[in-house]
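cron nightly-structures :: item 1 of 1
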Amino acid sequence: MDSNLLIRLFGWRAALIHGDTLVVDRWRWLKMRLPRASDQSRLIDVGCGTGGFTFGAAKQGYHALGLSWDERNQRIARLRASMCGADLAVFDVLDVRLLDTRSDLRGKFDVAVLCEVIEHILNDVKIVRDAANCLRPGGVMLLTTPNANYKPITKEDEGPFIAEETGWHVRKGYRAEDLLRLAESAGLTVQEVSFCSGFLSQKITGLFRLLTRFHSMVAWGLILPFRILPPLLDDYMTPLLDWPKFSICMVARKPPNSPV
C-alpha cells in the first residue's frame, strides 16, 4: 500500500507507522514531554526525515518547522502536510550541519527536536549547540539517539561505525554522561535522561527489516497486527528480561536568563 494512500486513509499518524516500530516509540516519548502549545508556540524539528514528528507537533498546536537536506523528502512532507491538514507544519531544505548559517532561526523557538540525528554527525557538539541557539530563553530540547548499550537488532547495528559522514551512524550510541556533556557544552540544563524502544519493539522491528528484504508492503502488512503489543507490554517485559532499550533520550532546558 502506498504511503501517501495511508496518509489519506488514516491521517498524519500513518507517517509514523509506515516504517518500523521504533518511530512510534519515539513519538510517544516526545508527545509525553512536549509542553502545552499556545497560539504562538514554535518548534523546530532538526533532521525531520519525512516529517512525521513535525506533523504531530503541528497537530498539537505548534508552528512547526521541519529541516532536512533531502529535497525529495521535503516535497513529500509538504504534500503530506496538506493531505492530513497539518497546516502549521512547514518544511525547509537545509543540511543541518549548517544550521548555524541560518541567523533567522536563532532564538525563535520554544522547542527543538533532534530525534536520531546526532549519531550521524561527526561534530555532535556543534549540532546540539546550534539547535540550542535556535531556542528562546527557557526553551526545551527533546533529543533521542541510540543507546550505547543496545543489543543489535540486525547485523547493520553491529557496525562498523566509521569516521565519515556517509548517511550511516558514525558512532554506535551514547551514554547518559555523553548527553550531559553535550548539553553542558550547549549551555543547557538537563532535566531528564530516559530510554525508549524496549524488547518487543526491537524484535518486531527486526522482523520488519528482515521481511522488507523480500517485499516492503508485505513486511508492513505482516507486522501491522503486532504493533499494538509494544505500548501494552514493553514496559513490563523489558525490565523483566533485563533488556536494554534501543534509544537514550534527553530533556534539556535553556536557562530563562540566557542571552538570545
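cron nightly-structures :: done
The first strand starts at residue 42 and ends at 46.
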